[in-house]
Amino acid sequence: MLRSLLDPAEARLTVMVDGRPFDAHPGETVAACLMRHDLVPTRQTPTGRPRAPYCLMGACFECTVELDGRTNVQACLTPVRDGMVICRNLRA
Amino acid sequence: MPEFASVDPATDVAIIGAGPAGMAAAIEARRHGLAVTVLDDQPTIGGQILRGITGARRVHYEIWGAPLASAFQQSGARHVRGASVWARDGETLVYGVEGQTCRLQAKAVILATGSMERPVVLPGHTLPGVVTVGALQSLLKGSAAVPSGRYVLAGSGPLLVLTALQLTKAGAPPLAIIDTTPRGRWRASLTKAPGLIGEPALAISGMKLLARIRMAKIPIFRHATDLRVLGTDRAEGLAFRAEGREHRLEAGMVALHDGVVPNDQLAVSFGCASRWNADAQAYAMVTTAEVRASVGGIWIAGDAAAISGGYLATLTGRLAALDVARELAMLTAEAHAEAAAPVLAERSRRLAARRFVDALYAPTLSAAKADGSALLCRCEEVPVSRVRAAIAQGATGTRQVKAATRCGMGPCQGRQCTLSLVSVLAEELGAAVTDFSRPSLRTPGRPITVAELAASHSGQGHTGSDA
Amino acid sequence: MKRAIVIGGGIVGLSLAVGMARTGLSVVILDGSDQEPRASYGNAGLVWVQGKGANHPPYAQWSRRSASLWPQFAESLLAATGIDPEYDRRGGFSLCLSEEELEARASMVAKLSGQPGIPDDVAMVDVDFIRERLPKVGPDVIGASWCPADGHANPLFLNQALAVQARSLGVEILRNDKALSIGMAGSQLTVFCAENRYPAERVVIAAGLATQPLAATAGMRVPLKPVRGQIVVTERLPPSIAHATPTTRQARAGSVMFGNSHEDHVVTPGTTLPILASHAQRAIREFPFLASARVLRSWGAIRVMPADGMPIYARSETCPGAFAVACHSGITLAAAHAGIVGPAIARDALPGELATLSSRRFDAALAS
Q1: Structure pTM?
Q2: For the packed helices C155-168 and B398-405, what is the interaxial angle rounded to 10 degrees?
Q3: Contact between residue B262 and residue B303 where contact means Cβ atoms under 8 Å apart
Q4: Nearest to residue A5, comparing CAs of B167, B135, B131, B175?
Q5: C contacts of A71 (beta carbons < 8 Å)
Q6: How confident is the model at residue C119 (pLDDT cuts 50, 70, 90)?
Q7: Which chains touch B (3 or more CB pairs under 8 A)?
Q8: B442, B269 in Cβ contact below 8 A?
Q9: Which residues of C touch A91 (CB under 8 A)?
């Protein structure tokens, strides 16, 4: 649902999302990276409804994912890092 | 057992937030010789309005932004990025950085946590693809990302037009702007702000923006009502009424906005008092002219206390730092008065226009008038209808509604539903919002893990089991 | 129709009001605002018998009596109101993390066993027994006491269900007219409030900590002290803790509540980091999986503690028809208050089985 204004050649980082590799730009947030690759929803509610990043400033807690083994991290507050392992909060 | 907290070197003043208020406070405090630590949960300085100011600058920032950021970076203040503060234990702040718990002792705390967008409630607003207009700003300024497909901007407030222009300039114009500001608001609002005559710049800049929207040929639907996001698992468009008929616009993203309110959860969790601000239709923190909070040792600067915008936030940030410097004996009372006087004067002059903006952009997508099916509490998925039913069953206050519906008990800790909750109570019971207590918020000021809580203090052993 | 006034619309007052209204009395509850401190919003939700009344068999029996009424009580509330108080009676543990805790627990269990009139079902159990029922306990758990009669409910839903049921029985809930005293206006029992006075055939004071001064106006001695309890609440988690303990329970919605603290004579609601951190440290030792769970909130509520820890049931000598009820375990005793005490008060009496829990015990203490 998003595209980057940056030169695609600059997307030199790689992150793993649910076991698959995706390119990432230095400086973009995990939430932006997930939305750019259309990796939504990012979580499900207790009743199973899909949710995705909403406020992108840390106030809504819709974008929480598992990052490098830490659960429920706010993706909108976290910049990507090369090799980062991201798991969306989705029940199969 | 969890690792125990790492302990930072003690500081004179801890500033929470690195937006306009926090940066201005840090610069001023450093000028008077105070040791300053700035804790900010964002990855870069600038807060929301100046996000990305130190980077490639993909939007036009207000002229005071870059000098402020640069002065902050040269001020000698210690800046901790990605630091989420969640408790105050005596003089010690407790915060987390990537799961590590840290403790920082500070003689004074300046809360500069800024604003957040007013929660909106309409059917479908929780679907993936629905974001806030501020979110689009944040993505553009912080991550250089823009919508890749058709999208619309809907709601009320100056951010709508500004964002539309910024995204148009970036090569991603919106399909349309759906403006929910009701007919007649401009005229009604002008009568509330005689001071506006002394502040013509505001009105002129608003007109200029609108002229540029017309030039960019972005359709604007005015006085829109009955907004509804289309789609079942994902946003597929927006339906609304305008100009006497129903419209449906297909779009993969829908950005909503209904003004901004103080981002004051941390202040509230520190026990600081707030009061209902009827002009702004939001809570405002109780502060003195020197922006001292009701709790000793805490100052609240900028939009975190009451919305007045980025530039005014720099003024209250400076006032907070000056008062802290006096409190910590780095400034005499006379020197303080001399330094604070021009700042106070400028602040009161510029505040005159605020009542006009508050009246013009009073909430338009409030839960009070929302369709019953719309979710009032995003986290616990509580529709407006269930809150209305709890009130019909006898609930007379926020605690009773929360107890009956779980509204506010999810991960956002009420950030997204408190204003909606009090507005529905007021509407249903025909009462004033001041008749209802604001739901209390205690530690943690933001969600943390049990391990982080365990690591935050050596504890005092098991406190006993009586059962 | 005879009129009864219940002062206090928390779980104790509502339970009694429901019990009285069922006998045909016309009941009015005088309740405060939503903002008042309320133990009904600030308790652990346990329907608990093990360990209760270890030093006073009648209290142990009374807790048992109420717990045995709870299944029917919960079912009838659900049937009448559609609101489920979420009562689960699967048995409860009190987990021990050290030899000292194990010894203290074992001596308590020994003291309870063999008391007349109390089922001999509280037992010390080993780690295998615990792991079979609570597979997620940590290696620090070395033993526990266990009682199959223990359970827990959702106090928020219980409160709401009782309020709805009370209304459906014709109980009227009046707010914000503060009761100041109970007395006789001539020969008429009367509640004197800030704005109005309410004549009634029966008056029950069930106003939490305010019961003590109000009861005193009608010559009843109900000595109470405030005690603050702090509790931590997590996000909703998959079902993981099937049996409650005094320190940890998982609600049906999935959230886990943990922490058991008692701060005597603290009158300000709120939390303190040392106690919350202690709660978290113990919770992780009891259930290591909780370490990564998110904490969403905590609270420290002011609760009611009778001077000797046991419930107090008082009947006024000077104001015939006036009663007072105060206890620490308003959840456990809710079933008995609705089923036994309310109807008894409607008949102008206290149940005979409560003789030793009457407020007269404080007169005796004073005399001796």
Answers
A1: 0.94
A2: 100
A3: yes
A4: B167
A5: 292, 294
A6: confident
A7: A, C
A8: yes
A9: none
In chain C, what is the straight-line distance between the N-terminal and C-terminal CA atoms, in Å?
43
- Considering only CB atoms, B453 lies closest to which of C175, C247, C276, namely C276
The token pair at C115 is 């008391």
B244-257 burial: b if 16+ Cβ within 10 Å, else e: eeebebebbbbbbb
How far is Cα C22 from Cα C324, in angstroms, rounded to an integer? 19
- Among candidate residues A40, B219, B465, B59, the one with its CA nearest the CA of residue C279: B465
Residue for token pair 């005499």: B332
Contact, C160 vs B403, CB < 8 A?
A: yes
Contact A40 B58 (CB under 8 A): no
Q: Is B389 exposed, middle or buried (0-12, 13-18, 19+ CB in 10 A)?
A: middle
**Min Cα–Cα distance to chain C from A26, Å:** 29
Burial (CB count <10 Å: 0-12, 13-18, 19+), residue C325: buried
Tell me which of C284, C286, C304 to substitute to probe the interface with B (most B C-beta atoms closer than 10 Å).
C284
C-alpha to C-alpha distance for B127 and B106, rounded to whole angstroms: 42
Q: How many CA atoms lie within 13 A of B251 on its CB side?
A: 28
Contact C294 A71 (CB under 8 A): yes
Please tell me the distance from the alpha carbon of residue B2 to that of residue C252, in angstroms, as a whole number. Answer: 28
Nearest residue, CB atoms, C254 vs list A46, A71, A72:
A46
Complex prediction ipTM: 0.97
Mean pLDDT for C37-47 is 91
B200 vs chain C: nearest CA distance in angstroms? Answer: 45
pLDDT at B194: 59
Which residues in chain A have Cβ-Cβ distances shorter than 8 Å to B143?
A: 4, 25, 27-29, 32-33
Q: Collapsing DSSP states into helix, strand and coil, what is residue C7?
A: strand
Q: Can you tell me the distance from the alpha carbon of A50 to that of B232, in angstroms, rounded to the nearest whole number?
A: 10
Do B385 and B351 contact (CB within 8 A), yes or no? no
Q: Is the pLDDT of residue C355 over 50?
A: yes
Residue A92: the pLDDT is 60
Q: State residue B152's pLDDT score.
A: 98
Rounded to the nearest 10 degrees, the angle between the axes of helix B418-429 and helix B384-392 is 40
Q: How far is B198 from chain A (nearest CA, A)?
A: 34
- Report how far residue B420's alpha carbon sits from residue B119's, in angstroms, rounded to the nearest whole number: 7
Q: Which of B271, B394, B449 sits opposite C294 (nearest CB)?
A: B449
Of the options 3.10.20.440, 3.30.470.20, 3.90.1150.180, 3.30.450.20, the CATH number for the domain spanning A2-87: 3.10.20.440
| Tens-digit pLDDT profile for residues B111-140 | 999 999 999 999 999 999 999 999 999 999
Chain C contact present for B403, CB below 8 A: yes
**Is 50 exceeded by the pLDDT of residue B1?**
no
CA distance C115 to C57: 7
Residue in A closest to B55 by C-alpha: A27
Q: Smallest Cβ distance to C296: which of B413, B456, B457?
A: B413
Which chain C residue has the Cα nearest residue B271? C270
3-state secondary structure of C12: helix
Which of B135, B148, B411 is the closest to A54 by Cβ? B135
Q: Which helix (H) or strand (E) holds B386?
A: helix B384-392
Buried-state track A10-43, b at ≥16 Cβ within 10 A, e below 16? ebebebebeeeebbbbebbbbbbbbbbbebbbbb
Strands of B286-330 (E only): list them: 298-300
> How is residue C92 annotated by DSSP?
E
Contact C262 B463 (CB under 8 A): yes
How would you classify the pairing of strands B78-80 and B36-39? parallel
